Fold each of these.
Amino acid sequence: MVLIISGIGTLIFIYAGGYLQGDPRIGRFYVMILIFMAAMLGVVLADSLLLLFVFWELTSISSFLLIGFNHESEQSRRSAQQALLVTGSGGLALLAGLILLATAGGSWQISVLLHQQTAVTTSPLYLPALILILLGAFTKSAQFPFHFWLPNAMAAPTPVSAYLHSATMVKAGVYLLARLHPVLGGTGEWFYGLVIVGGITAVLGGYLSWWQTDLKRIMAYSTVSALGVLVLLLGIGTKIAVEAAMLFLLVHSLYKGGLFMAAGAIDHETGTRNVRRLAGLARQMPFVFVGITLASLSMAGIPPLLGFIGKELIYEATLEPETAVWQLLLTALALLTNIFLVAASGVIVIKPFLGQPNEDTVQPHHPAGLSLWLGPLLLGLLSLGLGLFSNSTLVAKWLLQPAATAVYGHDLVLKLGLWHGLTPMLLLSGVTIAAGAGVWWLHERWRQGVMAVDAALAPRLGPEALYDRGFDGLLRLADWLTVRVQDGFLRHYLLWIVGTTVVLVGTALLRGKTAVMPSQDLIPGPNEILLTLVILGAAWMVVQADSRLAAVAGLGVIGYSMALIFILYGAPDLAMTQFSVETLTVILFVLVLYKLPTFETKDSTPTRLRNVVVSLLVGAMMTGLVLAANAIPASTHVTDFYSENSYVLAKGHNIVNVILVDFRGLDTMVEITVLSVAAVGVYALIHTRKQQQETAVEERRSES
């Protein structure tokens, strides 16, 4: 994965220089693509589940920026939003699944979890963890029914499509499934989940690819199909299936990166990607023609390209299950998928490059530059070279065998080759090529009918239509909720906040049964009883006062009484802080509130009764929290550590000061920074107000 990300990424950098030449935003593009590359490398190199998730989400955010690179276009903005919502929602499910996986396996480290398969698969958390992780992987890798976001993401510039949506980001979900195969695989739930979803995605993506007219959409749907094949193979999970998955992962990255870059070169030089308006490009764009031809042959599985070997391994994997029913079903899925991909390969190459131009044909404005054809040509030649030398030490032993071993969970020996004799796989390859050629021959006749059916059904029954209706419903729900919750009254906001807190915390306290009756040492003394009565009296004064100043005075009495309680319990530093804060608060309140008018109306009796009930519930909740905390045995090792090390390590006698300045100095620095930023903001507002007043005075003087 690192080789794919960095290798193809290098070619994308060269390609983008020519594709975006003269674009003033090219610097921004390079920053975004570097952020994405770093995030993707983080995903595949992270050993911590949490770190993997952080990089996972960073790929979603950076891809959102890249898909919406042409932000002036409404289609680009919509596609970027759609990709972010679909993959981001899956990311939330993934986070929950990773937490359950770590809980079941007893570790957050992937290297440790790989040896905990028995503990994980026998845990009651296995099924919910598997479902959530699969949701995250399926949304990222555009599996059915989440596949619709990937073709729409073709609104991005072609360098983005060639990198994110063929070789890297969409492979993140496949990578995650492969990485966790040793710990999550081997169960019926894993098999049925991946085989069913992967099989549907593979056939559906292949079917949707061959009748498209836009080059990038053809390639996008064929990418969806290839991702479905990878998920299907990982679901089968046998030795041959894992080998086929790792080989096809490489095969697809090579040919699809080349295809997308070639499509971008065509669009850049002709101004269109419509295959109906392209013909005779082989002479005008010879290097692009060679690159896209080799890539298409690899996608079609034609020997001696590496794609041919990958296709034979896929057929071998589908023929491996013990039951004849599964052999027939899986082989039929693979055969149908590959037939569609052969037809799509023909649509990409034959007419645009070998067809006869006519009056409707668009011709290139000028020859493609080196940066535009270098990537497709190199990747195409690499597919050819790796196919010819597939059984070499470099390809089989050093490149693919370690990857397959890591996914399979046991050592294996990978042997590749172009010729294995007359085998059922070779027969299936011949059938695939012949049937695919037939579909391509008939695709112009069938295209109109298929497009008409799609236009009639997709807006009503397609997953994207369901997404749109769900999104619209979510916006309506948000409008309804906002009107009722965000009404502009602070008291209502506080009511919602404390009410929600009471429900959640109170439920946890009642279910946990941690609240206990006060023990003998919690019975208050005379001083505490007196202060409690003072606090209750001041609280009653606050809620009954007709004057804001009287209410402020009552709040001050409550604060000073709390400071006295701190003194009684031997916390003079807290008492000093409380005295300072209360004094400052009372002064500020008096300075601000005395200018406001007196109360004109009071709440109605039902409203006041509601507030009383809520207040009593909050008080009961806080009492329960105090009792629950008191029931938990206090751990003194932290106190002992600070007592023993405050002077030794920080040379300070005041333990509280040492904690603030040294042991949690970074936190204190951030707090100071926040206060400083707030102060600057307040100063800026005051200064702006002063300038506005001075400007108004000057304008009045000039008018007079």
Note: The radius of gyration is 34 Å.
Amino acid sequence: MSLQTALQRSSVVPVLELDQVSIAYGSQPVVHQVSFSIQPGEVVALVGESGSGKTTTAQAIMGLLTENGRLEQGAIRLNGTDISHWSPRRLDAVRGAQISLIPQDPSSSLNPVKTVGEQVAEILNIHCRLPRKHVQQRVVALLTRVGLTHPELRARQYPHELSGGMKQRVLIAIAIALQPALIIADEPTSALDVTVQKRILDLIDELRQECGTAVLLVTHDLAVAAERADRLLVFRHGRVQEQGATAEVLRAPACDYTRQLFTDVPSLARAAPPPGHVPQELAIQVNGLVKHFRLDGTGRKTHPALDQVSFSVPRGTTHALVGESGSGKTTLARCLLGFQRPDSGQIMIDGVDFTQLKGEALRQFRRRIQLVYQNPFGSLDPSQTLYQVIEEPLLNFEPLSKAERYRRVRDLFERVALPNELLSRKPRELSGGQRQRVAIARALVLQPRVLVLDEATSALDVRVQAQILRLLQDLQQELGLTYLFISHDLATVRQISHSVSVLHRGVQVDNGATGDLFAMPGSDYTRQLIEAIPGRQFYAEPPKVEDAVYEQ
């Protein structure tokens, strides 16, 4: 920043200023003496793990704390005016007009029984007195501005008729409708594919430059923050650990916590091949896999979910399936697990053609290949203890004695680095990372040879994600496991996988060693995915392929 720019900025009243803000839920303090400001046109990112106080701080700014939340001390100034003790009715006048929110989950943030146009029009009707015709024109103009195709049609559609990226664009249209001075973007792209994420972030940046809108970006994705923010505030346990210009914090973080956070971010970390050995035999062979889904009741029209997909995975290595939503990743995983049958093609697991098995033979063979789901919050039975969760597959498959079952469950619990005293707890008493460790233990209790990991780290904070990835690599080394790692996060794929298949609309557009694919992608689509990785300008090039352990 030039001296002239710095002097100009210092003379401008901040759009937002927090001064020694402390917040509590009931009698429990959760945010402690937080101070920062945002200038017009500036992007400031609040980063940190879940529970660090980021979202609570953002909610306090909007006056949207839960009933038991309260501001204990400090001031929140909007354009120089303290709004921290304004009534909800008075705050309604500035929400949408001066401060707007882009929420995290587009699926739950839109009203399912109102059209998209009605929901965009609502913010205009609240704050402006315009003829109906002018409101309709303004709605179409806003939907056009955020890049939605056929805006007149979209205005008549309901949220369930739109993709996740489209719904997020609708929320942005609502947020910018009145050209507010400040937009609070709360994890605005966490549920989106990497290419859609880039388009959404580019759109927010364009609007910021055009209108001089300030942006408060609340995120646990440090790569996004590093790439998009002018300044960073690192939160931990409700306190600001450090703050400063993004480039300076990245170059020389002042505290150990920030250094560890950056170390754990896949796209900011130095590339290194995952540990392993040169494999001799194949654990998985997929040859010419085809799967169609019917589009109507007659069955005459079909959609090709998979079209001649082929790849092989050496034993003891990790093969990643990457692609956007709708690319065919999950369909392929369901075929591998025997939940769906392909229309043609072959799936060989340990030399056995999985597609030819039926009945009890298929059920027993599933012991060799197990699944770890994406969401550790929804994949565990809330009524069971953790011991029961892990023991259940043994009751279904193996006639073991009670003592042997207890020994195996305890051994696995220790192997995934959980203390045995947790075995009597229920899933709700655990953190997200602990739940995912339990899910991994449950998948391993039948001693499978192959694990399918379906977005198994995408719902986790960066530090917890790093811990789970290290655990998976340790287990692979110890047990000789083969992983099929399904993900849209190419930065994580680059860190953990030996080989990669890239799917696009059911077609395999790339396949090969991870180092090769990142160095020289074979398709424009793969190149676009790699270029969309947030923070990619900060990481080193991956090692040469001859340094990796993968052999095809």
Note: The chain is about 35% helix and 25% strand.
